Amino acid sequence: MFENLSERLSGVFDRLTKQGALSEDDVKTALREVRVALLEADVSLPVARDFVKAVQEKATGQAVTKSITPGQQVVKIVHDELVHVLTGEDDPGKLKIDNAPAPILMVGLQGSGKTTTTGKLAKRLKEREGKRVLMASLDVNRPAAMEQLAILGTQIGVDTLPIVKGEDPVQIAKRARTQAGLGGYDVYMLDTAGRLHIDAELIAQAAAVRDAVNPRETLLVVDGLTGQVAVEVAEEFDDKIGVTGVVLTRMDGDGRGGAALSMRAVTGKPIRFVGLGEKMDAIETFEPERIAGRILG
Ligand code: GDP
């Protein structure tokens, strides 16, 4: 099973070492295991291929074949390469919120965890950085979503923009900016509408809001359990709206972290946070080491 990639590799090499000296072909056999494991972890084929190639170059240069513990050597090389590919920003958890009030735009598909993540980040900014945060829901098609954000706000002690019926998302965004300015807020977070699929209207709406407020950060929230779909969603959002970072949710589930690797490799965008549950504290700054460990098992 995938969870035991480390063991699996060691197993392969142990079998090989019993036969005597290791050849380059033996290393190749092991790297095939790495590739299969990555695919099982929902890493896309081109990304897995490139990754294995990079590992292969390092492995042949590091006298793995002469090592007495070649399995562990390869595991270490794989680990280091995973961290290398996953590493985005030096300080992914630091949001750009100078020039108060700073707008943060939250985008993503419905059900990805966008509203929850908005609340989690607002709470974090308030508690860790002492920021005054205002949250606003722009989901005019789903009154329940607007109420959900208001309820979260009450729970975590963060203000939400009062709901006014009949406004469009751009009007709400501008009202949030005015209110944030007048009220002395440091940050205002805009929770845009989500849909089950990306469509032209969703993109047009998010783009209009972006143009109206010029966000300091545009964070894309994606469900980490959806693997390749999450990567496709990210590519499209980034292409059409431009994102400054990604939040992977549901990383508390049994997803294997492969989405994180493809996400970085394909979109080039840094993963900033990971969601680890439904509670308002269940969010952490993205740490490449941790995800690498998870992919390796
Ligand atoms: P939205 O439609 O994108 O705004 O999604 P919501 O924020 O309403 O979240 C949808 C569901 O996913 C809710 O039941 C959340 O509690 C849950 N959820 C959000 N983030 C996480 C997470 O990181 N882990 C888990 N297990 N559940 C999450």
Automatic annotation (TrEMBL):
A single Gene Ontology CC term: plasma membrane
Keywords: Cytoplasm, GTP-binding, Hydrolase, Nucleotide-binding, Ribonucleoprotein, RNA-binding, Signal recognition particle
Membrane topology summary: Peripheral membrane protein
Main localization (coarse): membrane
Binding site for GTP: 108-115, 191-195, 249-252
Residues annotated as domain SRP54-type proteins GTP-binding: 270-283
GO biological process: SRP-dependent cotranslational protein targeting to membrane
GO MF annotations, alphabetized: 7S RNA binding; GTP binding; GTPase activity
Reaction(s) catalysed (UniProt annotation): GTP + H2O = GDP + phosphate + H(+)
Entry's localization field: Cell inner membrane; Cytoplasm
Keyword Glycoprotein: no
EC number: 3.6.5.4
Task of the protein: Involved in targeting and insertion of nascent membrane proteins into the cytoplasmic membrane. Binds to the hydrophobic signal sequence of the ribosome-nascent chain (RNC) as it emerges from the ribosomes. The SRP-RNC complex is then targeted to the cytoplasmic membrane where it interacts with the SRP receptor FtsY. Interaction with FtsY leads to the transfer of the RNC complex to the Sec translocase for insertion into the membrane, the hydrolysis of GTP by both Ffh and FtsY, and the dissociation of the SRP-FtsY complex into the individual components.
Domain notes for this protein: Composed of three domains: the N-terminal N domain, which is responsible for interactions with the ribosome, the central G domain, which binds GTP, and the C-terminal M domain, which binds the RNA and the signal sequence of the RNC.
Protein name per UniProt: Signal recognition particle protein
Biological source species: Roseovarius spongiae
